[in-house]
Specification:
Elements: H1 5-10, E1 39-41, H2 49-59, E2 63-65, E3 71-75, E4 78-82
Parallel strand pairs: 1-2
Antiparallel strand pairs: 3-4
């Protein structure tokens, strides 16, 4: 489900978007749709690793990095990365 923003909103929290996209509408509630228990970062490139590491450390969380050739499949509560 979802590509780009759709992937982000399917997870637990959408705050991972903030290092990449400004919050122009001053959104306060960063809760995602919780289709999965992951926090996902689509379009991942190795050059963004420091940004994501800082986010993980600041928010005490783990971010699932997805390249443009990957997706997270969730079926019956079981999730796996597909390419």
């Amino acid at each position: 489900m979802g590509v780009s923003a759709g992937s982000v909103i399917a997870g637990l929290d959408i705050s991972i978007a903030s290092p990449f996209d400004p919050n122009d509408v001053n959104l306060q509630d960063m809760t995602g749709l919780c289709v999965t228990d992951k926090i996902m970062c689509p379009h991942y490139q190795r050059k963004e690793e420091n940004i994501i590491n800082e986010f993980e450390n600041k928010n005490n969380c783990k971010v699932l990095r997805l390249t443009d050739n990957q997706a997270l499949e969730v079926l019956g509560g079981v999730s796996k990365i597909i390419e």
